[in-house]
Amino acid sequence: MVDRKNPLPVSHQCKLLELPRSTFYHVPKPVSEEELELMAQIDRCHLKYPFYGSRRIRDWLEEQGHKVNRKRVQRLMRTMGLVALYPKRNLSLPDQAYKVYPYLLKGLVINRPNQVWLLTSFTFRWPEASCIW
Questions:
Q1: Distance from C-alpha of 41 to C-alpha of 22, rounded to nearest angstrom
Q2: Which mean pLDDT values do the consecutive 10-residue runs of the chain (133 residues) have?
Q3: Which of 42, 83, 109, 119 is deepest in the core (most CB within 10 A)?
């Protein structure tokens, strides 16, 4: 990768690798003890209440005596791979309220013009106008 001992300057090496120069100088921060303790508390809460999201976990943490921001809880949950469980919509079941209309042309032989008519209605929505039918 990028090497300081190389005769080519760091900026040119980064440009050749298509990396920003800040990537070379970036030193990741170690995770603090407070952060690890907070992650352990979040994990405990998630095991006890798997349906809690970041807001309710933040409230739970405040009850435990931790003053923490919701966005921080959200970030820690994302790094830990925790997602709240919630009921999903069941799209495989047909809607019971939907009325199925019978097909009236079934078995009818159409052999002359104007014997059967079809009416279709479309609604076009334009941003500047209200509606056009």
A1: 34
A2: 84 90 90 95 97 97 95 97 89 72 87 87 65 52
A3: 42
What distance lies between CA 25 and its chain's CA centroid?
32
Distance CA 90, CA 93 (A): 6
Please compute Rg for the chain using Cα positions.
31
Q: What's this model's pTM, rounded to 2 decimal places?
A: 0.55
Residue with the two structure tokens 């042309």: 105
At position 1, the amino acid (one-letter code) is: M
Tell me which residue of 12, 8, 11, 76 sits closest to 42, measured CA to CA.
Answer: 76
Are residues 118 and 112 in contact, defined by beta-carbon separation less than 8 angstroms?
Answer: no
Return the number of other C-beta atoms located less than 10 Å from residue 56's C-beta: 15
Which 3 state secondary structure label does DSSP give 10?
helix
Report domain extents, the chain: 1-28, 33-80
